[in-house]
Amino acid sequence: MAQGAVVRNAAQADRDEARAPRTRPIDMEHLANQCLGDENLGLEVLRMFDGTIAGYFGRLRLATAFDELAAHLHTIKGAAAGVGARGVADLARALEDDLRAGRPLKPERIDDLGMAVEEVRSFIAGLVAADEAE
Questions:
Q1: Comparing 10 with 119, which gets the higher pLDDT?
Q2: What are the entry keywords (predicted)?
């Protein structure tokens, strides 16, 4: 299988399961559309996203000031939406909305975001490992 075929196969699986509930933490069809069908680019975008999401979530955990929290949540939300990690984007958006409304960020909700981030990172690691095994 050619490099990037893992991304294409995952995108095809998403299309095949269009009527079934989503079980993948990344919408691979969305990612393929964002990358204009370039499978190698899609995999590279996921590699970069993995580092970005890990870094910004780590910074979010350490942040205490409103501006820091807002910036990190906004970055996580945008990056996740860009690659199709809708669960992460939705959780970050909800936390961002709470923050902007003056509501305290509940540690449990940040933990929920952390679990979603780890699920996405694990999924990416699986795609990268499968691609490297080819």
A1: 119
A2: Two-component regulatory system
